[in-house]
């Protein structure tokens, strides 16, 4: 191993290259030249004594050694940032900020009440809530950019180094507007959903495999007119203005269903149920404020009877 000190710029550069899968894009984000990024990577590899990245077509790929180092590099940067934030908060007489990743399924149904309960504790901690696809949120959690992710249990290969605490189970539903033609049928024919535009979860989303297995199991191998979306605002607007059918986790549309603004088609989707819970990093102790927020989430789930 070469006696070269590893500096923060080495870690920032490596983490950004790993995130972007491109030296060029990483250089743009870091506001430096591509040769500067390459030089920094080479310095880091010399200090560690292992190759961390390698060419992969027009981009780059992280090596096995790079994947191992990435977890520690991300955690180290996160620890430094938490230290900076803690000093700033201490100077402002405020608590440590909490960064939460929440899937759309819990953002509308759980988080408003949970955050209200947490703020009532007057910890002084600022709260940042990020939403997005499960795989993205879990990667941000693994890199230390988030303290907690609330959503469905991911596949085993995505849970390496993470802990999951169960909250409740949730099913997928087929949602339409009030007065939709399929709601008026005395005997519902499942195959008729092929006559309408169907909004589907995107490939790679956590509920997509559940939906695909359900459709195939009920004799539907393809949807003639399919739109993939992760946008709940688009989904709501689309089905309110058309006869489209939206296949979505029940929690995303629970407020709309409670208000009677949207309706669930009479389809038994019990087999699509999946666990929803709290995901944290296994190797990092939770801060007291994160524990308090997790408790607020649990209490909200209990009050809702989920």
Show unreliable segments: none
Q: Give the CATH superfamily of the largest domain.
A: Periplasmic binding protein-like II
**Topology pattern, helix = H, strand = E:** HHHEEHEHHEHEEEEHEHEHEEH
Q: Approximately how much beta-strand content do the residues carry?
A: 15-25%
Q: Tell me the radius of gyration.
A: 23 Å
| Helix segment tally | 11
The CATH class label of the largest domain is Alpha Beta
Helix content percent band: 40-55%
Q: Reading side by side through the largest sheet, how are the strands ordered? A: 4-3-5-12-6
Main beta-sheet annotation: 5 strands, mixed
Number of domains: 3
Describe the structure.
The chain has 306 residues and is an alpha/beta fold. It has three domains: 1-93, Orthogonal Bundle (Arc Repressor Mutant, subunit A), CATH 1.10.10; 94-169 and 275-304, D-Maltodextrin-Binding Protein, domain 2, CATH 3.40.190.10; 172-272, Periplasmic binding protein-like II (D-Maltodextrin-Binding Protein, domain 2). The protein has eleven helices and twelve strands. The strands form three sheets. Strands 4-3-5-12-6 form a five-stranded mixed β-sheet, with helices on both faces. A five-stranded mixed β-sheet has the order 9-8-10-7-11. Strands 1-2 form a two-stranded antiparallel ribbon. A hairpin with a 2-residue loop joins strand 1 and strand 2. Helix 2 (23-30) crosses helix 3 and helix 6 packs across helix 11. The radius of gyration is 23 Å and the shape is globular. The relative contact order is 0.14. Keywords: DNA-binding, Transcription, Transcription regulation.
């Amino acid at each position: 191993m070469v006696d070269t000190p590893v500096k923060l710029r080495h870690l920032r550069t490596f983490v950004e290259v790993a995130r972007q899968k491109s030296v060029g894009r990483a250089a743009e984000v870091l506001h430096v030249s591509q040769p500067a990024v390459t030089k920094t990577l080479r310095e880091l590899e010399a200090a560690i004594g292992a190759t961390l990245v390698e060419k992969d077509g027009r981009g780059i790929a992280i090596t096995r050694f790079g994947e191992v180092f990435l977890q520690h590099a991300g955690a180290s940067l996160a620890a430094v940032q938490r230290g900076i934030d803690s000093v700033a908060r201490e100077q402002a007489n405020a608590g440590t900020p909490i960064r939460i990743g929440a899937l759309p399924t819990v953002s509308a149904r759980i988080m408003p009440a949970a955050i209200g309960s947490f703020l009532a504790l007057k910890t002084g901690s600022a709260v940042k809530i990020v939403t997005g696809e499960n795989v993205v949120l879990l990667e941000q959690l693994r890199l230390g950019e988030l303290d907690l992710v609330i959503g469905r249990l991911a596949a085993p290969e995505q849970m390496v180094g993470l802990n999951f605490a169960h909250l409740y189970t949730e099913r997928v539903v087929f949602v339409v507007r009030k007065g939709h033609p399929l709601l008026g049928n005395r005997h519902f024919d499942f195959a008729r959903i092929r006559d309408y535009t169907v909004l589907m979860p995107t490939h790679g989303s956590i509920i997509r495999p559940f939906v695909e297995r359900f459709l195939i199991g009920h004799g539907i191998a393809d949807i003639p007119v399919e739109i993939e979306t992760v946008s709940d605002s688009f989904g709501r607007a689309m089905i309110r203005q058309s006869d489209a059918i939206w296949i979505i986790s029940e929690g995303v549309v629970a407020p709309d269903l409670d208000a009677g603004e949207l309706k669930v088609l009479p389809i038994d989707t019990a087999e699509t149920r999946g666990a929803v819970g709290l995901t944290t990093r296994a190797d990092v102790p939770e801060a007291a404020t994160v524990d308090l927020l997790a408790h607020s989430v649990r209490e909200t789930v209990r009050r809702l009877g989920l």
